[in-house]
Specification:
Blueprint (H helix, E strand, L loop, with lengths): L8 E8 L3 H12 L2 E7 L2 H11 L3 E5 L7 H11 L4 E6 L7 H7 L3 E4 L4 H48 L4 H51 L1 H27 L5 H29 L8 E4 H18 L3 E6 L4 E4 L1 H26 L7 E9 L2 E8 L6 H4 L19 H11 L3 E7 L3 E9 L1 H9 L1
Parallel strand pairs: 1-2, 1-3, 3-4, 4-5, 7-9
Antiparallel strand pairs: 6-8, 9-10, 10-12, 11-12
Helix pairs in contact: 2-3, 5-6, 7-8, 7-9, 9-10, 10-12
Amino acid sequence: MKKREVEKLDISILFVEDEELLRAIYERILDKFVSRLYVAENGKEGLELYEKYQPDLIITDIMMPVMDGLEMVEYIRRDDNNVRLVILSAYGEAEYFMDAIKIGVNSFLLKPVETKKLTSLVEELAKGILLEREVKEEELKRKMAEDNLKRLNEELEKRIEERTVDLKKEIRERIQAENELKHLNLTLENRVKEELKKRQKQQRLIIQKSKLESMGELAAGIAHEINQPLGGISMGLDNILFKQSNDGISEQYLTNKIDALFKDIDRIRQIINHVRVFSRDQQAVVSEVVDANEVINDALSLVSKQYQSHNIEVVLNLSDNCQIVGNKYRLEQVILNLLSNAKYAVDMKQVRVRSNSYIKTITINSFIENNQVVIEIVDNGVGIPQKNIDNIFDMFFTTKDVENGTGLGLSISYGIVKEMRGEIDVESKVNKYTKVKVLLPKSQEYIESKFY
């Protein structure tokens, strides 16, 4: 029986790779997969093929002779903001990733690339390419229908003046054109809904990635929080063994020691459960009445050891009745992001001033203002230049180096606060302070605004 051929994807790909063997392997794979494939051995040749054929998708190596991959895609991105760009990179080329993100590269694949990963990525990107193509075609049809409708209206007015006998026919044509336009609008609306669902999923994945990065930063503090009760358990057991081997153990002494050991065990259980729930991917975000002060204290328990090791003084001023409606773990993620930024600011200032008189201080306040719960975090660090204030909530915007920040923390925090119907306000003076205020509706006011 003859094997049925796999239907090729109706897209064009430009593949650029200087290594002859890899180029031949990937060319053979991609040629079976897509309808049009163009292959080049360096960036210069790839740029010439791009200008000639205008491919939908470009897959390129970074390090190549004559012209490297990043230089080529930078030229292409200036010309076309819609073409999909994929970078092939070895592990040693990770330093180029940030440059690639700035240029507008869509995806990265690490060499050596498995066939399944390559074809899966091409299929995923092809879906977006074909969807955009369909949307453009539908928009063109809609435009044609609109133009047709306009023409029919003009003809209708003219014919009413000249020949009233054609009136019924013109009205039928007009109704038909309007129905076509409605159908096209409905199709486009469904496409937009699908794209919105996809973007919401991507946003959730970005939030989870940022949360796990925060857990990595806080690992030392969490370990310390667990080691303290572990030390108590170890010492308690040593005391029991010592008593048993010397004077003997009274029932009361043993009972007291066991109670203390169980308290330490329960503390460890609480810490582990807190970390486990916080780091979980919250696919269905459950909103409930949350004590903002409790969330602040939970966040501080994760960073306190880190703050102590950096000699950071924490001033805590928490008012009563600071209840809001939301997800406590998402709010905790916001507070941890803000505390991380505050720590970085005071650490950087200490590096600059090099003075023993400088005391790194972070103040955390909570209070009620205009029926809103306000969480305020103030640091006496380096501050934020005024020119950057308007950009700090943009995704991937950061003034930190690559090792200290990705530019996702504040952007994600802003999105979470907006989901909770709140606002974030930032006030800063260079080399003096930064004050970040998170304003959230007080629980009762939130409920009333939602249901009444």
